[in-house]
């Protein structure tokens, strides 16, 4: 994640640009599409080992916490109904939230897209005369590339979440929406801290070990000076409560609490779908979210604040309600169900494709099932990256089973794939031979499957192929589609005996 940071030199602060490593561009924009990017990610054995170990641990913890909750399915159903009510009456709850926030001294801004939200943040920061802000971990600000925009405006954005700090100092990109540095192991984190911390603040102790408590202590000391001098903080929010105008952030480290109490000004960028109707509704989600996200019974820090309180916390608060494509998603009767997402990442943690490919392959800050259903709809499916994402799925359905708000991911993925195909045909037909070849292939399949005699003929033909190959695997063929498919798969030759032949030989007339 490229961002402008400060380099300490002879006791004075000077501007230094934290550039990304060559293999990792600063943002997800401009990345290759999944089908190309995943080939490089699969060649990283250390990353794949890190991902496998982390995913196994998280899945086990979640399963344990869910098993001890006898009312788990009732909670899921309640969350499902609450979020559906928000979608049906989003206009009402947004106006109610604006009114409640304003009455409590919060300045409310409306942003049509990420660019407008970034501009509002920069204008507020400049009006306070600051050239740095501290940030609470926020997937929404990553969606808008806020850090990169602030860098262009001469404002340093310091990430204070431990995982986000690792990503930022490592000239890297987040690979998970809850645990952004999940692709790194403790030895790699130690190397990053020793190499980079001294350039941007208090250095990491030279004798630091790779034990997590020691690394956390080093990060705490490094960040403390930033907390104490910060005048402006930027956050997202897990929820906005429409009836009380309260914002809610759940976290595990306490850095969020520091950002919410020490600076004079607090700016929160929140997607318009993050609303809950009432304070009472929060109870359901505070039981679902920690168990689904990190396998905890509850988050160590649950912060709820309702406007400005004289002499306590930030004395100027801004909330930016951001659309950035969400109303377009809401207009789709099938696609809108993804707006129930509470960003727990349980779908990511069980996804076999994500575990092997890693988050960087998706070309979006949202990887895994939530990414391939949400991102193409938010961005409009005009880019090849967005059009490739829905195919990063085996349709195993594991994500459907674990989602705490019952998002039917596989239904939405098929729906989005259909929209991608329609868009590509409109763009490429009748010029592209690949489209014509695909249409011919589908017509052939319809002919084969439309009549059992046709299917039987093909089976007998495959039997002949099996006899010719003598049980050898089928290798790449001089046909574009087959060549791409077989290049990365071992496909055995067809059997020399069909099932129908076997049935006739091993069953009597009455059994048939």
From TrEMBL:
Biological processes per GO annotation: lactate metabolic process
PROSITE patterns linked: 4FE4S_FER_1 (PS00198)
Organism: Propionibacterium cyclohexanicum
Protein name from the UniProt record: L-lactate dehydrogenase complex protein LldF
GO molecular function, one term: metal ion binding
Annotated keywords: 4Fe-4S, Electron transport, Iron, Iron-sulfur, Metal-binding, Repeat, Transport
Coiled-coil spans in chain: none
Stretches assigned to the 4Fe-4S ferredoxin-type domain: 337-407
Residue stretches making up the LUD domain: 96-321
Keyword Nucleotidyltransferase: no
């Amino acid at each position: 994640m490229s961002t402008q940071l400060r380099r300490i030199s002879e006791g004075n602060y000077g501007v230094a640009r934290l550039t990304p490593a060559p293999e990792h561009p600063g943002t997800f924009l401009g990345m290759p599409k999944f089908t190309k990017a995943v080939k490089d990610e699969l060649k990283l054995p250390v990353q794949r080992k890190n991902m496998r170990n982390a995913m196994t641990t998280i899945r086990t913890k979640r399963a344990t916490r869910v098993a001890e909750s006898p009312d788990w399915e009732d909670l899921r159903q309640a969350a499902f109904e609450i979020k559906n009510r928000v979608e049906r009456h989003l206009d009402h709850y947004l106006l109610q939230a604006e009114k409640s926030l304003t009455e409590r001294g919060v300045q409310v801004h409306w942003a049509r897209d990420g660019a407008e939200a970034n501009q509002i943040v920069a204008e507020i920061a400049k009006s306070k005369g600051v050239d740095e802000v501290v940030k609470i971990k926020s997937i929404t600000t990553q969606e808008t590339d806020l850090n990169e925009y602030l860098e262009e405006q001469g404002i340093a954005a310091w990430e204070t979440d431990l995982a986000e700090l690792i990503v930022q100092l490592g000239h890297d990109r987040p690979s998970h929406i809850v645990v952004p540095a999940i692709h790194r192991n403790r030895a790699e984190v130690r190397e990053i801290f020793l190499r980079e911390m001294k350039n941007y603040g208090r250095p990491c102790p030279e004798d630091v070990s790779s034990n997590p408590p020691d690394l956390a202590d080093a990060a705490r000391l490094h960040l403390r000076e930033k907390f104490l001098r910060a005048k402006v903080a930027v956050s997202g929010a897990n929820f906005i409560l429409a009836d009380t105008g309260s914002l809610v952030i759940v976290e595990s480290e306490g850095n969020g609490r520091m950002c919410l109490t020490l600076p004079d000004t607090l700016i929160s960028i929140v997607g318009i779908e993050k609303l809950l109707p009432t304070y009472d509704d929060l109870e359901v989600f505070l039981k679902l979210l920690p168990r689904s996200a990190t396998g905890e019974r509850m988050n160590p820090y649950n912060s709820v604040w309702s406007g400005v309180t004289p002499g306590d916390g930030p004395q100027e608060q801004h909330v930016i309600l951001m659309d950035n494509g969400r109303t377009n998603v809401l207009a789709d009767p099938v696609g809108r169900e993804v707006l129930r997402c509470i960003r727990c990442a349980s779908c990511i943690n069980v996804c076999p494709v994500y575990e092997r490919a890693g988050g960087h392959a998706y070309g979006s800050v949202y990887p895994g099932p939530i990414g391939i259903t949400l991102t193409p709809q938010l961005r409009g499916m005009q880019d090849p990256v967005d059009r490739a994402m829905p195919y990063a799925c085996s349709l195993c359905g594991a994500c459907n089973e674990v989602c705490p708000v019952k998002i039917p991911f596989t239904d939405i993925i098929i729906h989005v794939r259909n929209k991608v195909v329609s868009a590509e045909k409109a763009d490429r037909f009748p010029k592209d031979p690949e489209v014509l070849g695909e249409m011919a292939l589908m017509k052939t399949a319809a002919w084969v499957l439309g009549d059992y005699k046709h299917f039987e003929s093909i089976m007998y033909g495959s039997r002949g192929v099996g006899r010719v190959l003598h049980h050898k695997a089928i290798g790449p063929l001089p046909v574009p589609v087959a060549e791409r498919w077989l290049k990365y798969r071992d496909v055995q030759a067809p059997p020399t005996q069909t099932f129908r032949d076997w049935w006739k030989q091993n069953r009597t007339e009455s059994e048939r």
